[in-house]
Each structure stands twice: as structure tokens, then as C-alpha cells.
Specification:
Length: 952
């Protein structure tokens, strides 16, 4: 067969017999492929590697930072300023001691700093694909030309015959040809923790879920036990792992709400600035009747352009987000991508896994049914202490010996170990068996002691076909002098007469009960009646409807050890002991976290691979869903079109039997409905959904490297309550970002209007140089803004709905506040400027006539300090707040004021910044005008309180 006749499209390999699969790929199970066939297939299918689409290079990312409209305007200002300084230098117009190009150097330094900040944030390359590649095995053993050879995994082709054994990582997808006791751990791919027993002889239905395809193996999974011969069916990007890589690369990274708002802010500021520059230049030209003062007008324009750009804002936002990440780490939430801190505050829907996130990932026995009575079992986790209750009343084990008898079966028919590590009870082995050991411990039955009383001599291991396991033990008497002549322990005194062996069986309640003919009642044994059988089955159904996982227990006395492979004959005529119902119990703190979500307008959604009854029980218990709410299963979801899913997605709070690839569709459907989605995941298959979600949340304990690399945030404790805490922190961060944007831009507008007014009202020169404006924007704005970034949360931060992620940065009154405060700032400063100009140009004035500019500079800077103190709260007066609840604001105000005064009174700084000495009267006037800013903002709060309105 030529390479051209090999399968092109997707073949459903698990639905084919082994011989049919071999025929399709023209391969031989014993001989493998020839070198010529391998070469042809390598050309047709390509190497067995995950392909990476080309992303942006580091240089492209760096250059992209300088496409920001505000930085482009600053670059233009720097070049024009440099050109004017060059002209002044050539014409000898520089003042004595004046440093040329200082404005240009300072502006370009700010541009470069902001560019580097943006680059550092954005250049974290996407490492999810790199983590996927790590999951592929470097070497693999195959049969070629009838000989076993070891080759590089990338040389595998469809039709190769691959040999597997315990400990190997599987290098490609394949159909099993033959296998011996093969168990494969597929948790990274399917999310299922337990290893899967594979069977080559099965032929499965086409629609079989990925986790149930027992006759195929997948790239990236691990052989836990056994060995196998496998026909390679898919390599590279056509494997299940490759499909995930393709989905991962197809998901486009959208700008976060903060990034979108900052872009909008830049566009508005630059446009507004250019309009004002045009007005000033045209107005000046008209006023002067020509271009004789064009240089002065250009200097004014440059100063206005620098004033309008909040140069310190990117740095303040970066530091604010970084501080937010530190606070979140202390709450067990590790933020991988800085903008995600603020994005969390916009979340409207949290889609959470059940196991380990909403629950403890610890199976806990809730209910026991034995001797026709249902006992409730108290206790949490694997701690082997707790009460047994009957009809709400605590009972003693002496009153109900059947509990001890059932507990012995739980401890003996068990392969796990319960132990205390560093003060915590933990399980080595299967969580279900751990729950049974914990139950036995609550009944005073310790496995170690009973292993010596009933040592295991044989077993029939669990299999998915039999759905049960049995252990055969030898009965060792203890010298109690009771129960029988051999001194058998009282807990099992009724189990044996003279038989030397006991077999304990556990498994599916229906199957175990079907093999039972007698029933253990108290210390007695009787015939199992049809009425009793129906009552046990009804109790089993009741437990299952509550979401419990139910196991049935039985025993059988034996006169000899049954031969190996005789399980079918030996597991007959059993004596029924009882039912044990267990649940992966909800985390105790999650119920309150779900309630907090509801109050905050966030909808929690449960997505699980578990049974729908279990999912409904947990979701109802936690308050995620109400009684009677719809549960959407994976099969139903599979049959839905994207449009049908979109119509239903807002109505469903529980998704059960869902495979990880369904998560991507759920996220996309929610996003099309305008929801802002946080999604949790831990498996490799979860990675595309995590990347698609607005906030992808990986599990720190159980999560794979791939899921962590694709996520925005990692839960260090895998706890749903941590997501809610992080969401609260996100809201606080966004509130504080809005607060300092109001603070910074209010003053910037005041600066621009003041600068624009100077030439229009006939004052000579520009009141502020670009260097002084940079000082204001970076220091006198920047330090208090950083202090405002750590303002504690308002009391109602989680009692309101999330703000729309699509709202404008100027929404909810922020824009009108900035304009209003900017105008007040300008009115106060222009009034001061007029007085100062007349004062410094009056006859007999002893100082420098240019000192009026320093008075304007000082007033603008000190007025901002009052603004910083007043803006800490939108509604509460400053005197109503604890001044020490944010000590950083007080420190920033004091430090900034001292620094500003140093620019006026320290000669070297005065020379560099072009300021002039102010006497005490002039400084007092500046402080007086500055204080009016604080008075105005406090008066606004009083006015709004009287009017019954709430400020934003």
C-alpha cells in the first residue's frame, strides 16, 4: 500500500477491531514497518512533534510599547524641545548656568522607563506549549522489520508497533493490539485521578467519551502497571495532546479591561491636548497679529503637551498591581499575569471544578445502613473520631454491635493506609478506601491490630467488570475466653463457627447483594428475605439520590483458601453486612464564600466530571443551585449547537459528566452572553478553556504544569473561597486605581488650563517648564498616588454587583469629577497667578520678577497634597476617617511637601529646576490658595450628603 492510500481524515480507532485497524494502516503486529514505509509516512504525516505557531519576537514586543499614543506624543515633545534648545545654543540665548537639553533628556528617560515597564509585563512568553512538549517521551521502543529497536519519539509514524511497560510515558496515540494487566494514568488528559484498566479486545461505540476509551492509549499519559503492544494511530498535532496544543494556540489573548481603559484614556487625553494646543497657538497668533511670538507659543504648547500626559501613571498602576499580587499570595492566590489583579474585580461568573475546590477531595462516610437501621456518621476529613447517630441521637457501639462488625469489613477489605503526618491525618492510597478506614477508626477498629487478628492469605482484586473485590483472611483467636472455644474477637464472634478462614467482599451494592443469601443482624445470621432485599435496594437508591457513593459489604466463612481465579464460584452465598454511603464533603468555608458571591452579584457555576446526582447534592448543599434546578450533562451538551448552548448557559448552574474539552464551549458561550468568566482547571485538557477565560485559574496542588502555564492565577490551596477573596482584592485594586486616576488627572487638567491661560491673558512667558511639569507628574502626583493605591477597602465592596468590564474609564462620574476639579484647580491657580504676576512686577519689588512662576509651581504642587488627603473617601469627610488607617498618605504628603520646598530653598536644585527664592509672605499666600482645594472637595461631600446623593 502506498502512503497516498493511508487514512487522511480522522478515523474513530476505538470503534474498530484490532485487525481492521492494522489493515487500515497497512501494518503487521509482529513485523512492524519497513524503512521505505517509514520514510513515506514521515513525508506524509511529518515528525511526531507539537508544532508552534510563530509569535511576536522580543524586539517586536519592545517596539510595540512605543506605539502607545501618549508615549508618541512625549517623543514628539522631546524632539521639538531638543530642537528649540539647539537653536538657543547656536544663537547664544542660553542663560548663565542653564543646562541645555535637560527637558529632552528627562522626557526621553520617562518614555524609555514606561516602555520597559510595558515590555516586562507583556514579554512573559506563553509557556503552556513548552509544558505540553515536556509531556512527550524522548525515546520509545518499537518493532520494525520484526526487530525491537529504540528510536526518538519524533520518528514515530502511524502504523508503527510500539511496546509499553510500567513507568513509560506514552509517545503517541495508539490502538491496543494486546495487553497484560495494563493500567494507564490519564489524569493529565481527562481529569480523572484513578488509573484506567485498558483492554485490547474491546470494540467501543463511536460516541464513547475520551476517559472511557479503554482500548486506546494517548500521548502524554503514563503506564502505571503492566505491558502492552500498541499500533500507533496518530502522531504530532493529530494526537489528543496535539489537538489541545492547536486549541491553545487558536485562543486569542484579549486585552484586559484595564488595558482597554488605559488605551481609551490615552486617546482622550492626547486628542484633548492637541485641540487645546491648536486653540492656544491660533489664539496667540491672532492676538499678536502674526508669528512674531511663535517660539513662546511653541514653548507653551510643549508645556501643555507634557502636562496632559500622566507620566507617572503607568508606574503607579504597575506598583499597585504588584502590591495587589503580594496581598493575594498571602491569601493563597498566586497571580501569574499582573493585569489579572484588576481583572478579577470585574468577574461576573465563576465556573469551578467540584473535586478539591468546592469539596475537600477527601471522601467522608456520611451514612451507614445495617441491621435495618440507618446511622448518620459525624466527623470531618480523615480524622478517625466522630459519633454515630440514630434518629438524631448519639448511640454507643455496645447498643449497636452490627456497626463494629461492618467496620471490621471496612478495615480488612482495604489496601490503603491511614496515618498521621505532621499533625494531619492523611491517606496513602485510594480516597474511597481512606473513608472506610476513617469509619472503622470511629468505631474503634484499627487496621493494624486487625491485620494480626485476621491476616490476609489471598484476594480477588477489584476489576471494572466484576465491580467488587474480596480478601480471604485467616481467623486468629484472642484469649478473651468469650464468644467461642477459640476466643474469636467479639466484633466478629457471629461470623464463624469452626471455619478457619473468612472472606470479606465489598463492591457495587446491587451486585454484592445479588450474591448474598443470608444477612447479619446484630450478633445473629438469618436468611435474607425478599422484603429485606427490597428495603436494602430502596436505601441504596435513597443514598445515591443524595449524591453519596454507596458500597455494599458482605462476608463468608470458608473451610479452605479458594484457588486463584475461582472468584466467580467463591463469591456466592455471601452473608450481607450493610451499606456504606460516602461523599467528598464540601469544604466548610465554601458555603459562606458562595453566599458572599451571591451578595456581590457573582454567579457561581459547578462543572464536574462526577455523576449528576452527586453534583446536584453538593451544589444544592453549598447554595450554588436550588432544589429542582436543571443539571446539564456532557452528553446533552455534546448534542447542543453553540447557539443552543448560548441560550441555556445563563439558566444552568450545574454541569455534570462534563469532559474538560466541554469547558471551552461553556466559557465561549458565557462570553458571547457578555459575562466576564473565571474558570478553574487542573488537567492538560483544561488549558484551552483556562486561556480563553477572562481569568484562568489553575490548581496549585493538583494542577499540571500545562494548566498553570495557561492560567492567569494559581490557587495555592485549590480552594474556592480563595477565588472569592481574590475577587474582593481585585475590586479593591480597581477602586484604588480609579481613585488615583481621579487624583492625577484632576491636577493635570488644572495644569493644562493654567498654562494655556498665561499667554491668553497677556502674561509674559510660560509659567511652568516641561521639567517642572515632569516633577509634578512624577513626584508630587506619583508619591501620593502610590499611597492611595493601598487604601483599605470600603465596607460595602462585596455588597454590590461587579462593575461592567466594558465600562469607560470615565464612567460613574469620574470624567465629570476630573473636569470639575481641574477647572477649580485652574481658577484658584490662575487667580493666584494674576496676583503673583502683579506682585512681582510692582515697583520696589526686591526679588526676581520671574518669581511669580515659582509661586504658580508651588501652589499647584501643595494644592495636590490637600487633594490627596480629601480624596481618600468619596463620601466620608476627612475628620470622620482614621488618619492612621492609611499612614502612607500622611507620609507621602509630608515627604512631597518637603521635597517641593527643597526645590525653592536649596540653591543647586533651584538652579537646575529654574525656580526662584520665595519670601515667607509669598510662601504663605501659596499655602493659603492651596488649602482652598482641600476645602472645596470637603464642601462637595457635604453638599452631596445634604442632597442625598452618593459620590462615585
Amino acid at each position: 500500500m502506498s502512503a497516498n492510500s493511508l487514512p487522511e481524515g480522522a478515523v474513530i480507532w476505538h470503534s474498530l477491531e484490532v485487525d481492521k485497524a492494522l489493515d487500515l494502516l497497512d501494518s503487521n503486529a509482529d513485523r512492524g514497518l519497513t524503512p521505505q514505509e517509514i520514510e513515506q509516512r514521515l513525508q506524509k504525516y511529518g515528525p511526531n512533534e507539537l508544532e508552534e505557531t510563530a509569535g511576536r519576537s522580543a524586539w517586536e514586543i519592545l517596539l510595540d510599547q512605543f506605539k502607545n499614543i501618549m508615549l508618541l506624543m512625549l517623543i514628539g515633545v522631546a524632539l521639538i524641545s531638543g530642537f528649540l534648545d539647539l537653536m538657543a545654543l547656536r544663537e547664544g540665548r542660553l542663560k548663565p548656568g542653564e543646562v541645555p537639553f535637560k527637558d529632552t533628556i528627562a522626557i526621553l528617560a520617562i518614555v524609555i522607563l514606561n516602555g520597559i515597564l510595558g515590555y516586562v509585563q507583556e514579554s512573559r512568553a506563553e509557556k503552556a506549549l513548552a509544558a505540553l512538549k515536556k509531556m512527550t517521551s524522548p525515546l520509545v521502543r518499537v518493532i520494525r522489520e520484526g526487530r525491537q529497536v529504540e528510536i526518538a519519539a519524533k520518528e514515530l509514524v502511524p502504523g508503527d508497533v510500539m511496546l509499553l511497560e510500567a513507568g513509560m510515558q506514552i509517545a503517541a496515540d495508539g490502538r491496543l493490539i494486546e495487553q497484560s494487566n495494563l493500567q494507564v494514568r490519564e489524569s493529565a488528559l481527562t481529569g480523572e485521578a484513578q488509573s484506567v484498566n485498558k483492554q485490547a479486545t474491546l470494540k467501543l461505540a463511536e460516541e464513547t467519551d475520551l476517559g472511557d476509551r479503554l482500548n486506546v492509549v494517548f500521548q502524554g499519559t503514563e503506564v502505571v502497571q503492566g505491558r502492552a503492544k500498541v499500533l500507533v494511530t496518530n502522531t504530532g498535532m493529530t494526537t489528543e495532546l496535539g489537538k489541545i496544543a492547536a486549541m491553545l494556540q487558536a485562543v486569542e489573548s484579549e486585552p484586559t479591561p484595564l488595558q482597554q481603559r488605559m488605551t481609551q484614556l490615552g486617546n482622550v487625553l492626547v486628542t484633548g491636548s492637541l485641540i487645546l494646543v491648536a486653540i492656544v497657538v491660533v489664539g496667540g497668533v491672532i492676538k499678536d497679529g502674526g508669528f512674531k511670538n511663535i517660539q513662546e507659543l511653541l514653548e507653551v504648547s510643549l508645556s501643555m503637551a507634557v502636562a496632559v500626559v500622566p507620566e507617572g501613571l503607568p508606574a503607579v498602576i504597575t506598583v499597585t498591581l504588584a502590591l495587589g499580587t503580594q496581598r493575594m499570595v498571602r491569601q493563597n492566590a498566586l497571580i501569574r499575569k499582573l493585569p489579572a489583579v484588576e481583572t478579577l474585580g470585574s468577574v461576573t461568573t465563576i465556573c469551578s471544578d467540584k473535586t478539591g475546590t468546592l469539596t475537600q477531595n477527601k471522601m467522608v462516610v456520611q451514612s451507614v445502613f445495617t441491621n435495618n437501621k440507618t446511622f448518620r456518621v459525624a466527623g470531618e476529613g480523615y480524622v478517625p473520631t466522630g459519633d454515630f447517630q440514630l434518629n438524631g441521637q448519639k448511640i454507643s457501639l455496645e447498643e449497636s454491635p452490627e456497626i463494629s462488625a461492618l467496620s471490621v469489613a471496612c478495615a480488612i477489605c482495604n489496601d490503603s493506609v491511614l496515618q498521621k503526618e505532621q499533625g494531619e491525618w492523611a491517606i496513602l492510597g485510594d480516597p474511597t478506601e481512606g473513608a472506610l478506614l476513617t469509619l472503622a477508626g470511629k468505631a474503634g477498629i484499627e487496621k493494624d491490630q486487625w491485620n494480626s487478628k485476621l491476616p490476609r492469605v489471598a484476594e480477588f482484586p477489584f476489576s471494572s467488570e466484576r465491580k467488587r473485590m474480596s480478601v480471604i483472611t485467616q481467623v486468629e483467636g484472642v484469649a478473651t475466653g468469650e464468644a467461642s472455644s477459640r476466643g474469636v474477637d467479639p466484633a466478629i464472634a457471629g461470623f464463624v463457627q469452626s471455619e478457619p478462614y473468612l472472606m470479606f467482599t465489598k463492591g457495587s451494592p446491587e451486585l454484592t447483594l445479588g450474591r448474598s443469601t443470608q444477612i447479619h443482624l446484630g450478633d445473629d445470621t438469618g436468611t435474607l428475605t425478599e422484603e429485606q432485599r427490597q428495603k436494602i435496594l430502596a436505601e441504596n437508591d435513597l443514598m445515591a439520590s443524595k449524591g453519596l457513593r454507596v458500597l455494599g459489604f458482605a462476608y463468608k466463612p470458608l473451610t479452605e483458601i479458594p484457588p486463584e481465579g475461582s472468584d466467580e464460584a467463591s463469591e456466592q452465598d455471601l452473608v450481607w453486612l450493610g451499606l456504606v454511603g460516602m461523599l467528598d464533603a464540601p469544604r466548610p468555608e465554601v458555603r459562606a464564600a458562595v453566599q458572599e458571591c451571591r451578595e456581590a452579584g457573582i454567579r457561581p457555576v459547578m462543572i464536574t466530571g462526577d455523576h449528576q446526582l452527586t453534583a446536584r447534592a453538593i451544589a444544592t448543599d453549598l447554595g450554588i443551585a436550588q432544589e429542582g434546578d436543571r443539571v446539564l450533562t456532557g452528553q446533552e451538551l455534546q448534542r447542543m449547537t453553540d447557539q443552543e448552548l448560548e441560550q441555556n448557559v445563563d439558566l444552568v448552574s450545574i454541569y455534570a459528566r462534563v469532559s474538560p474539552e466541554h469547558k471551552l464551549r461553556i466559557v465561549q458561550a458565557l462570553q458571547r452572553r457578555g459575562r466576564f468568566v473565571a474558570m478553574t482547571g487542573d488537567g492538560v485538557n483544561d488549558a484551552p478553556a483556562l486561556k480563553q477565560a477572562d481569568i484562568g485559574i489553575a490548581m496549585g496542588i493538583t494542577g499540571t504544569d500545562v494548566s498553570k502555564e495557561a492560567s492567569d492565577m494559581v490557587l495555592l490551596d485549590d480552594n474556592f473561597a480563595t477565588i472569592v477573596s481574590a475577587t474582593k482584592e481585585g475590586r479593591v485594586v480597581y477602586t484604588n486605581i480609579r481613585r488615583f486616576i481621579k487624583y492625577i488627572l484632576g491636577s493635570n487638567i488644572g495644569e493644562v488650563l493654567t498654562i494655556a491661560a498665561a499667554p491668553l491673558i497677556g502674561l509674559g512667558g510660560v509659567p511652568l517648564t516641561p521639567l517642572q511639569i515632569l516633577w509634578m507628574n512624577l513626584v508630587t502626583d506619583g508619591l501620593p498616588a502610590l499611597a492611595l493605591a493601598v487604601e483599605p477597602p470600603e465596607p460595602d465592596v462585596m455588597q454590590r454587583p461587579p462593575f461592567s468590564p466594558r465600562e469607560s474609564i470615565f464612567a460613574r462620574g469620574l470624567g465629570s469629577y476630573m473636569i470639575r476639579i481641574g477647572i477649580i484647580f485652574a481658577i484658584l491657580t490662575i487667580t493666584l497667578m494674576l496676583w503673583a504676576y502683579k506682585h512681582t512686577h510692582a515697583e520696589g519689588y526686591q526679588g526676581n520678577p520671574e518669581a511669580w512662576k515659582t509661586m504658580v509651581f508651588t501652589t499647584l504642587c501643595i494644592a495636590q497634597m490637600g487633594h490627596a488627603i480629601a480624596i481618600r473617601s468619596n463620601n466620608r469627610l476627612t475628620i470622620e476617617m482614621n488618619p492612621f488607617s492609611n499612614i502612607f498618605v500622611l507620609a507621602a504628603v509630608v515627604v512631597t511637601t518637603i521635597l517641593q520646598l527643597m526645590l525653592v530653598y536649596v540653591p543647586p536644585l533651584r538652579d537646575f529646576f529654574g525656580t526662584h527664592y520665595l519670601n515667607m509672605q509669598e510662601l504663605g499666600v501659596c499655602i493659603g490658595f492651596s488649602a482652598l482645594m482641600f476645602v472645596w472637595i470637603e464642601a462637595e461631600k457635604i453638599f452631596l450628603r445634604i442632597m442625598g446623593k452618593k459620590a462615585v
